[in-house]
Fold these 2 entries.
Entry 1:
Amino acid sequence: MPAVKIPREKAEKVKKTLKKLKIYDGRRRPKRAEDFIFLPVLDPNKAQRLGLEVVYIDLPLRPERQIYKNLESVLMEKLSPEERKHLRRYDIIGDIAITQIPPELEHRKKEIIEGLLTIHPFLKVVAVKGSHKGAFRIREYSIVWGEKRLETIHRENGVEFKVDLSRVFFNPRMKGERYRLAQLTEDGERVLLMFAGILPYALVIARYKNVEITAVELNKNAIKLGMENIEMNRRRLKGRIELIEGDVFKVVPGLQNFDRVISPTPKGVDALSLALSKAEKWLHYYDFIHENELGRFKERILEKCRKQGKDCEIRVKKVSDYKPHVFKVCADVRML
Ligand SMILES: C[S@@+](CC[C@H](N)C(=O)[O-])C[C@H]1O[C@@H](n2cnc3c(N)ncnc32)[C@H](O)[C@@H]1O
């Protein structure tokens, strides 16, 4: 498949340009080779017209794309091309498959379940997801096959999480984000994790780095699972985690400052000022932003920084699609 061969130091800039021109192939992983990076492109002719060196090289699909493609291919003979267009991405959490069945495929539920079981023979539960509800952001699910439970053990980034999807929030698609933050974090840092949930971020960071993490969460069920998760992973962790039960807005003002603050902010909550006020070196602030509002979002953070007498450098990263034109983003804010 087509890719452009770019010297490492220019890769970020070229990637931005390719994305702007909508010819960057985000479904595939870029590849590093010595001083170069191969960036996947959708339109080699257009890339060539930009003066870039086009090569043909095997770049694997990102795992989530691969997973989706697998379902499409096992259902190749059972579903018509029109029906296959309605197939949605699904997630595997431990031995539970979480899928969506749009109205156009309701009559194909049996085939979709069989397809999932063919690809993942270890599955014990297949559930269809509804929307997130309330302050704890718990999703509604209906179990369509298998055991009547939503509790499981999920493995990711070298740690294990006990999850009960009927009582707590958990998003397996943030695996890459958790790894990214673990790589950015440095040994010896004091880290504050607001809205900690069952501790996926805290555990992945503590797995890789010798840090002191303070985590705050309000949902009692998440606290209970979080405590179990610390125990379950204890021998794997380089860092230490203190988990505080309580409301972030009441607990955090009374805490010390931290080298790094992470806020996987629940949708509709504004914790920016609070998170920023506790960050001495870095803040990673998650929010849901319309693509036309990205500049305004950055401005808002800069304004808050100025108000708090901080000089900041901000990079906003799109983390995942939320709905058309709206993205979950992470603002990486560095205090200068
Ligand atoms: C989007 S989830 C993120 C959870 C976790 N960090 C993760 O990535 O799996 C937000 C979490 O914040 C918790 N929460 C909501 N409001 C809170 C508050 N005022 N104080 C502390 N935790 C809160 C919810 O229970 C939920 O676990």
Note: The CA atoms of residues 199 and 226 lie 6 Å apart.
Entry 2:
Amino acid sequence: MVQQGSRTVLVVAAHADDEALGCGGTIARHVIEGDRVHLVVMADGVHSRLDANPVDLERRMAAAARAQKILGIGEVDYLGLPDNRMDSLALLDIVQSLEPVLQKLAPQVVYTHHHGDLNIDHRITQQAVMTACRPQPGHAVKEIYGFEVMSSTEWASPQSEPFLPSFFVDITAQLETKQRALAAYAEELRPVPHSRSMEHLEALARHRGYSMGLDAAEAFVVYRLIR
Ligand SMILES: [Zn+2]
């Protein structure tokens, strides 16, 4: 097992903001513990919107850069796939766009979406990660975890597999950092009682924490854990 403090961690998010929503506290904690955290954003996040224009994209990229700095993320790769239309691409092409990053970084730990999310890009991203991280002999990836993203994971249809976490990260000391990163993405948040509101995101961190006897936590499903 690679020791804490020298690991390379890769977060594969469909859209810029999913990394902060899904595992912002865990990212901040990895950075504090000395791990290197790299982010891949699969889709650009604005093209699917009717009012999309270059100014929106620029603003969103600036917000993403601010959030990533707050969390301590090192490098970011934007793959530029079509937002909310990743199902228009062949899975093989998506996997092949991820593989060079995996080869370059050889991460030991990977975080990505839950496979049952409502959002099509989230589901395809998870599938692409599992395919790109096939455990062939000598493969670096020892751990793969799926995070939850409010207004997608809990909005999934009943026929989707529910998010049933079994891995929890104590983010009591990182909750404030996570909230600052989310504040950088203020344009993606909505007022309560919307599911993707600052209030609900804090309630979720408390719920996941209190469920485990902690003050705040992020929850994950375990897709792979090799020791
Ligand atoms: Zn997303």
Note: The CA atoms of residues 94 and 128 lie 6 Å apart.
